[in-house]
Design a protein that fits this description.
Blueprint lengths: L3 H21 L3 H6 L9 H6 L49 H11 L13 H13 L11 H11 L12 E6 L4 E6 L2 E8 L12 E4 L2 E8 L4 E10 L2 E5 L15 E3 L1 H10 L5 E5 L6
Parallel strand pairs: 1-9, 7-8
Antiparallel strand pairs: 1-2, 2-3, 4-9, 5-6, 6-7
Helix pairs in contact: 4-6
Length: 286
């Protein structure tokens, strides 16, 4: 027989056990409804914040639409036409004898590029100026006028083979074309250049002579003028540097062979006493 006190203790222990168990057991209704069900957060979510609940203002925030990205268009290149190279102006007036001078200068050579077309160009301008400078044709402006054409014609038409030059040095004078040149042993050692010989009443005599007197600066008694690079060959007549403008044709000389300074010096360097002189032709108007 169980003692009454023992029975009372057993009953009390049962009650405590039942009450404690009810506090820790899951309610099946709550489990079905998902109320207060704990959620396990994995490590990835903790690091990224994916499991975080929204803040108080995030529920009303609108997600912006992605902006349409457009690539910058390539700049439009407008094709440009090449700029034509402007024709360089000649800088020289056109003379009435232009084509004629072109022809003579092309034949002579040595004055630059020449195109025989009758048209002024920068090349023609430069060549004509060079020619005018060489033969002291004034003014030097590249214009092919009558004087330039006449000088070019005389030089271009001079036939050096007409000079009866033997062995040694010969000074040759063509009175018709008013040109002078020098030859040595049949070869031209000084090309034709311009001269001015005796005017009417003082015509230079033709024939074969020899230099018989030279003086680098001779004084003329009758005409009271210095005659640089004097080389006498007959009757008070000789070669010397001109004392006036050589292209002033009407005045001429008193029989002497007038020469440009550069040519008188060159002829002086080639000559000596005994040098042969051959004069032929006839100056127009004498």
């Amino acid at each position: 027989m169980i003692h009454p006190r023992m029975v009372a203790r057993l009953v009390a222990l049962a009650v405590v056990t039942l009450v404690g168990a009810g506090a820790c057991t899951f309610d099946p209704e709550q489990e079905r409804a998902g109320a207060d069900k704990p959620t396990r957060v994995n490590a990835t979510e903790r690091e990224s914040g994916a499991s975080d609940t929204s803040g108080p203002n995030q529920s009303n925030r609108r997600t912006p639409k992605p902006t349409k990205t457009t690539t910058n268009p390539r700049p439009r290149v407008t094709p440009t036409k090449p700029t034509p190279t402007p024709t360089k102006p000649s800088g020289c007036p056109v003379g009435e004898k232009h084509r004629e001078v072109e022809t003579y200068l092309a034949k002579l050579g040595g004055f630059g590029k020449i195109t025989v077309d009758g048209k002024q160009s920068a090349e023609d301008c430069a060549a004509i100026k060079k020619f005018q400078t060489r033969y002291d044709i004034r003014p030097v402006q590249g214009r092919a006028g009558p004087l330039t054409a006449d000088v070019a014609r005389r030089l271009a038409n001079t036939n050096t083979a007409q000079c009866k030059a033997g062995s040694g040095t010969t000074f040759c004078i063509n009175l018709t074309l008013q040109t002078v040149w020098a030859m040595r042993d049949g070869k031209v050692v000084m090309p034709p250049t311009v001269t001015r010989t005796g005017m009417p009443g003082y015509a230079t005599p033709t024939g074969t002579y020899k230099i018989n007197f030279r003086n680098i600066k001779e004084w003329s008694d009758p005409y009271e003028v210095w005659m640089p690079y004097w080389q006498h060959f007959t009757q008070g007549i000789g070669f010397h540097q001109t004392t006036t403008y050589i292209h002033n044709g009407p005045i001429g000389s008193h029989g002497c062979i007038n020469m440009l300074p550069v040519d008188a010096q060159k002829l002086w360097s080639l000559g000596k006493v005994g040098t042969r002189v051959y004069v032929f032709g006839r100056r127009p108007g004498t």
